[in-house]
Amino acid sequence: KQEVTQIPAALSVPEGENLVLNCSFTDSAIYNLQWFRQDPGKGLTSLLLIQSSQREQTSGRLNASLDKSSGRSTLYIAASQPGDSATYLCAVGVGYGQNFVFGPGTRLSVLP
Amino acid sequence: DTAVSQTPKYLVTQMGNDKSIKCEQNLGHDTMYWYKQDSKKFLKIMFSYNNKELIINETVPNRFSPKSPDKAHLNLHINSLELGDSAVYFCASSQVGDGYTFGSGTRLTVV
Which residues of A sit within 8 Å Cβ distance of B? Predict the structure, then answer.
């Protein structure tokens, strides 16, 4: 059974810092991995999708990497801004129908 | 145009009632899902439908019954609501190999 963990559970940084969020999964047989952000009381916004054959994806200040063999993904946020404050969720696509298994999330606060 | 839309956004109801949540996607995706986010904010899959056929049915009470009239719609009907059913329910859709697109969620409060 696939299990997904995220470290740290919460992170508080001053504006402008570069930061890394970590995601680990127990079974390397995945279809893909997707990073989301969730603002309080809101839905999920897709940030980056990495297919199992890919090593990384970039969008603006965000870069996500995937190392299937070690069961890890990282989300790198450059030059963090207060607007980046949210919960970041990692989800791993597994099985027929591409069921996504979610991690518990990292709650990020970027202080002005 | 909203890609995945859920209604209602908020639902407050008494224990024992029956309620439905509707979901529609206009992305042409083949697969739709229902996820539950509990008070600890953990997201867990409930159901998955591919082209109107049920393919994932996780361990949820049989009071929860999904219905897919066509591949663009996946509704969730809940019978005999209990206090523990209070949560945010998210609908999502995907095409196999692509990522998920989520709806904005339905916050269900059972009183």
Answer: 31-32, 34, 36, 38, 42-46, 49, 51, 87, 89, 91, 93, 95-102, 104-105
Q: CA distances (Å), B17 to each of B65, B67, B105, B111, in order?
A: 14, 18, 20, 10
What are the pLDDT digits (tens) for A32-46? 999 999 998 888 999
- The C-alpha atoms of residue A84 and residue A93 are separated, in whole angstroms, by 25
Q: Check CB contact under 8 Å for A100 and B90.
A: no
As beta bridge partners, residue B53 has B50
What residue in B sits closest to A45 (Cα-Cα)? B102
Strand ordering across the sheet containing B64-70: B4-7, B19-25, B73-78, B64-70
If you measure CA to CA, which chain B residue comes closest to A51? B97
- Using one digit for the tens of pLDDT, what is the confidence trace for A23-72? 999 999 898 999 999 998 888 999 999 999 999 999 999 999 999 999 99
**pLDDT for B101:** 92
Cβ A48 vs Cβ A64: under 8 Å: yes
